[in-house]
Design brief:
The chain is mainly alpha-helical. It contains 49 helices and 10 strands. Helix 7 (about 165-175) links the parallel strand 5 and strand 6 (about 180-190). It is elongated.
């Protein structure tokens, strides 16, 4: 046994680090006030990172904080998926069981992938948002727990972290915004070589201003002296301090080892290296203790006592005595919170491990694997598969390693640890040829690579093939973002399939390649989809066939919608239902419904989409829940039903937030901004647009938000700001995969910004480019605003001499496009009338009747900005062509326009209305009525007898045509009365006027019963 000093090799005195500890305490103070703090602590091995974290943790606990520690677990060269987070969450659960359960409520199935104690994780198909969904739910779990308690989450040894842990930590550092939470992580800076996987993460985090990075330096001579004094419990001699300081170079751990060695009478320069010094300490142990140390070194970061006992094969008393010797010598230490042992410092473990002979290493790994196979309960259930796979792999036994590695890959996939799944599958490919044929024939497809396994075989009876591994690896690579590796795997599979007659598997790989090509911005993916379609044509229904059809239909809906696309979507739904592929059927029905709406089958298409939404919400199909709350409101907005769209989008925000669907949430925010703009709720729209840019992980939601910001800036008289946002939107979408839903709105804004800046030639060039490309079927929602913008630009520039040349050709082109577009919905019928009225204005023809019809068309649509614009045009037309009897009507129209523009903040429109009123000497504010207020509310509002009759019919829901029939007046006169009523009531639309009439009880209920539609 060693002397008493040998049990005190860690100094009882905490030396130095005052500045670093102060930084950590300041972070804790900020966190207690509700500002999350994130810190990275780096330093070379042995410099004192763990001791600093321990001191801070003790101080934090003394101040009432809950501390959850988790360390990255190393097994050989492998890291366990999410190990530090699982450990830390377990600690949180022990400390705050009720709070954690409440925070996880409703999402236990998903969060069980990190903390299995919460329940069984949901089985089923995986998607590219699955990992992000888990990350978002984890972030929100921590924020909720930290809402009432200050929490310190400390993760150690990031240099050993698996890829999934690194991705999750990066997500937390980037997204945590609320909660009394401190997140800190430590890593060895001397291990981070140029190719180390942690290096890119550190570079990424360095760019975040919210993260504080601490780099621990070595001790100076004074600090080394204080540390030695603490270890020896007495003041050291100055020459001893000098010798140890020179030998250790201020590394805290080496100071400890050298101080102990010196106290034992060893010279500090006794060995050739400090690593040898560590081995001398081990070699001073009894033989049994040395054997146990070697076993623990190869077992992983921590080895459970029962597993160690099974591998050591010593009598229990002998094992305990050997462990006691190693612990007393400061070589091993009991693992905190676990029934196991670990090396007091990883440097000692590495020295012992490196000293093992190759045969000795593989033998120890075999013994670990055999012990674990005999009794799987020797290790925690969530670590079992990964550790067994690692032990057999490092035992160099391919026959045993291949099945174990495949089982571990399934567990990694279940936990959404797709990076680890990919690594394990690549290891399985490496082992494939080395494993005996009898072993390979006994293997079965271990998981479902989306719809791949049902390709003409029964997974329960058909042996696993190398091609199946490639399929699993291709999907894992795509899901974890390793798309280049996934594309290489896909290409290798297609080369192998070229030698076989297997059209279904080949088609499946072509669909994978299409997705990867699109994600890597290498093209639009259609060539790959078309190849897959050719391969499945004429084959019986299958999941692959259904997915190929659904993928083709969705691709075409976004890029080239038309009758063929509608047919493909119908067949996809039919095939998916025939083979029981519910998720494919739901996605295909959303595509079909959207195509039907665009084709004019509005109610039938919406019915499909509503049914899908209700079904997937009830069943909890997360990825389709997200899509349904993006596509359905988009279809509603596309036919002018903006209020209905907003209601669904608000519910979509609630669901996507609860389910952690961050990408879908970004899309929902973008669509919400568009619908709020239509409804005239511009301030809310701007907030939604900013949220779309913040939430979207991919370029498209960001581009959508930028597009909405550009529209608002232009409408509010800020063309330079609009141009900036427009450039952001264009850059986000990129040129590699053009889609009408992106390109046409961008072209529309390009024309608008060019016109606002007086660049009519540029506006015409953009229009010519767009007209040459044409408007695909079903894109009228984007085409009508574009044609309107172009026609308006021409009309506004009519007085410019430079605009005369080429005008007739431009107007003819716009008119030709108008004749080809459909007007299935009232909003697009109104736009058609508007475009035609602008074309009349551009041609120099004043047409009050045409503008009156446009106003009538827009009045019931609930689009205040559009209505204000066409009212302005009607007022201008009346003042140009009408007589004195039209001035009152024009004045009311201008008052309504000005009021709406001021409310929206549409300064250019408000200024135009003011200028026109000034030129026409028309007041924009109604004159105040003299005398006492009449008792009759209608008289108080200044309504004439005739206007009272008209308001009664408006409140009953009649159109201007029906009002004219009821009162035996012309529709034009009815329109004049309606405009006057709106002005006197101070409202912007017929619906608001009806609401005022109901609120003031102007008419008995029986008088409001609507007659036949007019």
């Amino acid at each position: 046994m060693l002397g008493a000093v040998e049990t005190r090799s860690v100094s009882p005195v905490f030396v130095g680090r005052a500045e670093e500890l102060g930084t950590l305490h300041n972070a804790l103070v900020r966190a207690r006030e509700g500002e999350p703090a994130a810190l990275l602590i780096g330093g070379e091995a042995g410099v004192g990172k763990t001791r600093l974290v321990e001191e801070f943790a003790a101080a934090a606990r003394s101040r009432g904080a809950v501390v959850a520690l988790g360390g990255c677990v190393e097994i050989g060269a492998d890291g366990l998926p999410f190990a530090p987070f699982s450990t830390a969450l377990r600690a949180l659960r022990r400390e705050l069981p009720g709070e954690l359960a409440a925070a996880a409520a409703g999402q236990e199935e998903e969060l069980a992938r990190l903390l299995p104690e919460l329940g069984e994780s949901r089985a089923g198909r995986h998607d590219e948002d699955a990992m992000a969904r888990l990350f978002e739910l984890t972030a929100r779990l921590l924020e909720r727990v930290a809402a009432e308690h200050t929490v310190v989450l400390a993760l150690e040894d990031l240099h050993w972290a698996d890829a999934s842990t690194r991705h999750l930590l990066s997500y937390l550092f980037r997204t945590l915004r609320t909660g009394r939470l401190v997140v800190l992580a430590t890593y060895r800076s001397d291990d981070i070589h140029r190719r180390h996987p942690l290096r890119p993460l550190l570079a990424e985090l360095d760019r975040l201003r919210t993260i504080r990075r601490l780099e621990l330096a070595r001790f100076n001579r004074e600090e080394v002296g204080r540390q030695i004094a603490g270890i020896l419990a007495q003041e050291p001699e100055p020459d001893q301090v000098d010798a140890i300081f020179e030998r250790s170079d201020g590394n805290a751990f080496f100071v400890e080892e050298l101080a102990v060695a010196a106290h034992e009478g060893c010279r500090t320069g006794l060995t050739d290296s400090l690593r040898d010094l560590l081995l001398v300490r081990v070699e001073g142990l009894p033989e049994a203790a040395q054997q146990v140390a070697r076993i623990v070194a190869e077992g992983g970061s921590t080895v459970e006592y029962r597993l160690l006992s099974a591998v050591a094969r010593l009598a229990e008393d002998d094992l305990i005595e050997a462990l006691r010797a190693a612990v007393n010598a400061g070589i091993l230490a009991p693992a905190p919170g676990d029934d196991g042992y670990r090396f007091r410092h990883s440097l000692v473990r590495e020295a012992v491990s490196d000293d093992l002979l190759p045969g000795e290493r593989s033998r120890l790994n075999r013994r670990y694997a055999e012990a674990l196979e005999t009794d799987p309960a020797l290790v925690p259930a969530d670590q079992r598969a990964a550790r067994l796979a690692s032990y057999w792999y490092h035992a160099h036994d391919a026959a045993k390693a291949l099945p174990a590695v495949l089982e571990a890959s399934v567990e990694a996939r279940r936990r959404h640890a797709y990076s680890e799944q990919l690594r394990l599958l690549e290891r399985a490919m490496e082992l494939w040829d080395a494993a005996p044929d009898t072993v390979r024939r006994s293997l079965r497809p271990v998981d479902y690579a989306e719809v791949y396994p049902p390709c003409g075989c029964d997974p329960a009876t058909t042996a696993l093939r190398y091609l199946d591994l490639l399929a699993e690896a291709a999907v894992a690579g795509r899901l974890c973002g390793e798309r280049e590796r996934a594309l290489k795997i896909t290409k290798r599979a297609l080369r192998l399939l070229a030698l076989e007659n297997d059209p279904l598997r080949t088609a499946w790989f072509w669909i994978q390649r299409s997705r990867l090509v699109q994600r890597l911005a290498r093209g639009d993916g259609w060539q790959e989809i078309a190849t897959a379609q050719d391969l499945v044509r004429g084959l019986p229904p299958s999941e692959v066939h259904a997915e190929v059809l659904a993928t083709a239909a969705h691709w075409s809906m976004l890029r080239e919608p038309g009758p063929d696309t509608l047919t493909a979507a119908e067949r996809a739904v039919e095939y998916a239902r025939m083979v029981g592929a519910d998720e494919i059927a739901s996605n295909a029905r959303l595509t079909l419904g959207g195509l039907m709406v665009e084709a004019g089958q509005i109610e039938a298409g919406l019915a499909h989409m509503y049914e899908v939404r209700d079904d997937v919400v009830a069943r909890g199909l997360a990825v389709v829940v997200g899509r349904s709350h993006v596509n359905l409101p988009s279809a509603l907005e596309g036919i002018g039903r903006s209020e209905e769209s907003v209601g669904i989008l608000r519910e979509g925000l609630r669901l996507t937030g609860r389910m952690g669907l961050t990408e879908s949430e970004g899309w929902v925010w973008g669509n919400l901004a568009e619908s709020l703009i239509s409804l005239g709720r511009w301030d809310e729209a701007a907030q939604a647009a900013v949220s779309a840019q913040r939430m979207g992980r991919t370029a498209a939601p960001y581009g959508s938000g930028a597009h909405s910001m550009a529209f608002l800036a232009l409408a509010r008289g800020e063309p330079a700001e609009a141009a900036r946002h427009l450039a952001e939107a264009r850059a986000s979408y990129g040129p590699h995969d053009p889609m009408p839903q992106h390109d046409l709105p961008i072209s529309c804004l390009t024309i608008a910004v060019a016109a606002a800046e007086g660049r009519l030639a540029d506006a015409r060039a953009e229009l010519a480019r767009t007209l040459e490309s044409g408007f695909p079927l079903g894109t009228q929602r984007y085409a009508w605003p574009l044609l309107l913008q172009a026609a308006t630009a021409e009309a506004d520039a009519r007085a410019l001499p430079a605009a005369r040349e080429g005008r007739e050709q431009v107007l003819d082109g716009i008119l030709a496009a108008v004749k080809r577009l459909t007007t299935h919905a009232p909003v697009w019928h109104a736009h058609e009338q508007w475009v035609r009225a602008e074309l009349h204005r551009a041609a120099g023809r004043s047409a009050p009747d045409a503008w009156s019809e446009v106003v009538t068309a827009f009045e019931p649509l609930g689009r205040p900005y559009d209505l204000a614009r066409v009212r302005y045009r009607l007022a201008a037309s009346l003042l140009t062509s009408g007589g004195e009897d039209e001035r009152e009507r024009a004045a009311e129209l201008l008052r309504l326009t000005h009021a709406a523009a001021r409310h929206l903040g549409a300064r250019p429109l408000a200024d135009a209305a003011t200028a026109l009123g000034r030129r026409a000497r028309l007041p924009l504010a109604p004159a105040a009525a003299p005398g006492p207020a009449p008792a009759d509310p209608a008289e108080a509002l200044g309504l004439t007898s005739r206007e009272r009759d008209v308001l009664r019919l408006v409140a009953a829901g009649h159109t201007n045509r029906r009002i004219a029939q009821e009162l035996f007046i012309s529709p034009k006169t009815a329109s004049v009365h309606v405009s006057n009523i709106l002005g006197k009531l101070g409202v912007s639309g017929r619906g608001e006027a009806a609401a005022v009439a109901h609120r003031l009880e102007l008419f008995p209920a029986e008088m409001l019963m609507p007659g036949p539609a007019g």
